[in-house]
Amino acid sequence: MFTTKRVCLAFLFALLFGCTPKTLVIENQAQSDIMPFIRDGITEREEVLIRLGKPASTYKGSQIITYWLWKDELGKFVVIPKQRLPHDMRGTGFKENLHNLILVFDSVDVLERHSIVFIR
Amino acid sequence: MYKRWVMLFFISLTLIGCIYIPLPEHGLISGRAMIHQKDIDALEPGKTTLADVLLMFGDPQERSYNDEYFCYNWERVKGVLGTIIGDAPLGKTHYFCTKFSQDNRLVRRAHIEASMWGDARKKRDEVLESWGKEDGKFAEN
After folding, report:
1. Tally of domains within chain B
2. Which position among A10, A34, A58, B31 has the lowest Cβ density within 10 Å, counted as fewest Cβ atoms?
3. How does residue A103 score in pLDDT terms, banded at 50, 70 and 90?
4. What is the pLDDT of residues B90-118, one digit of tens each?
């Protein structure tokens, strides 16, 4: 009886704590912690393209560009091509290290706003 | 008499061999992350822009070719299906879709979820159709 109770309790704990839903977190201060060269009102599009390469996605005639960043074992962020992303993002351990960088430029190609969306 | 035993045998096999245990929604089976209802409610039609939505939620999984429509999706565990050979989680799919105007302002937003055995994708298509999306096509993003 005691053992059955313990098994039930363990199952309940696993349900409550082992399957915590992943939620979106946004880093959007004026200067990025993850990418320090990214500064609102200062960084130009050209610098971003030179440093990070071809964007993963572009919106509204390239006014908005996005990148996928992968945090490696050493905590360093590297740009990964969109083609390498799993289609439905199944599997644990992958999503947690994936960061989505969103950059919004003004009419003279200076960074207006940015955010880094990741899950926790 | 013999037939009754055969029927009982098959009924018990069905009952023992396959059982569905409903659970409160939890975890994440697929999709990048769940989007909270309070974040969806914080968006203001006519005020929120396409850039605001991207900065808040990141790249959508699906976007229309002219960027008039975005859709994010995720799947959460809603129950467990137990069979003789093992068990598997059963998921519930959610969609969060937006519609933007020509000047990139949010026009419509919806959190779409189907009932346990319902087709969320079909429901999403119905909602988008009611918003005026005609072709039903999306570009994977």
Report:
1. 1
2. A10
3. very high
4. 888 999 999 999 999 999 999 998 876 78
The whole domain housing B120 covers 20-140
Query: Is B89 inside any structural domain?
Result: yes
Q: Which of A70, A117, A120 to mutate to test the interface with B (most CBs of B within 10 A)?
A: A117
Among the partner residues A19, A56, A102, nearest to B54 by beta-carbon distance: A102
The answer to whether the complex's ipTM is over 0.90 is: no
Task: List pLDDT tens digits, range B3-21.
Answer: 788 888 777 756 666 777 7
Chain A: nearest CA to B62, how far in angstroms? 11
B124 in any annotated domain: yes
